[in-house]
């Protein structure tokens, strides 16, 4: 049964936003920063900022909002990352969808609303649920994970972006859903978000060299590698890969990754990509948001 906990209700005061935009319009340069920051913190993470701006009846507010769109987006992300990280490093992934969607809004080319993002995830989840129902007579854990991997890798075509591994778009989940290309962690996040809708016990495995998913029941467990077509890998094989790649096997490698851990790794990937591309301004911006996660959350796996 698909999870229903992703339905959201807009619960903010539009009148308050109009009042804040009035203050912004009539403020001096020294006051604008604080007001923009406040506006960003008032907008729910799942709302489209451009759509909210377009609802203003006052045309000067619409013009003002568009001129500060990137700042509003950035401050909203920073506010909600701080709120999210204060919840601690839980690995149930209730906040993962929020975190990765917020990160994707930092992509300057992003036009995907949360509603569109959510709809695409649910479309894929319904397809897999349909296969579960069709194959319910033989629906073991092994069959479930094979069907999940088949739909995502073969039917949907999600695969590793080996030709452009260091494209920053590989880390923005809304772009990954469109292009079907990503890096190990972003493709794993797609699997995790779909699996959560299907109530499948799949978690992130934060290996030092290659992020994967881990399917775990009391009597059955297996690793899933979304980057390589959703292939299934036994734990002993993963441990061998660690040793071959020069890493000492640690129990920490097999601990379920929390939402915060996943977000930190995604941010670190983006920072490295932008540093290599000599885009220090973008690297600094993402480093600031990473610091919010580092400062607000206790050390976790």
Explain the overall architecture.
With 301 residues, the protein is an alpha+beta fold. It has a domain at 114-266: C8orf32 fold (Roll). Helix content is 56%, strand content 8%. A five-stranded antiparallel beta sheet has the order 6-5-4-3-7. The chain has a two-stranded parallel ribbon with strand order 1-2. Strand 3 and strand 4 form a beta hairpin. Helix 2 crosses helix 5 (69-85) and helix 6 runs parallel beside helix 12 (259-276).
Oligomerization category of the chains in this entry = single chain
What is the CATH class of the domain at 114-266?
A: Alpha Beta
Please state the overall shape, judged from the principal axes of the Cα atoms: globular
| SS strand fraction | 5-15%
Structural class: alpha+beta
Helical residues, percent? 55-70%
Note the total helix count: 13
Q: Largest sheet at a glance? A: 5 strands, antiparallel
Helix and strand layout, with pairings?
Layout: H1 14-25, H2 29-42, H3 49-54, H4 59-67, H5 69-85, H6 96-104, H7 114-134, H8 141-155, E1 159-160, H9 173-179, E2 181-182, H10 184-197, E3 202-205, E4 212-216, E5 221-225, E6 231-233, H11 235-244, E7 256-257, H12 259-276, H13 280-296
Parallel strand pairs: 1-2
Antiparallel strand pairs: 3-4, 3-7, 4-5, 5-6
Provide a quick synopsis of the model.
The protein is an alpha+beta fold. Helices cover 56% and strands 8% of the residues.
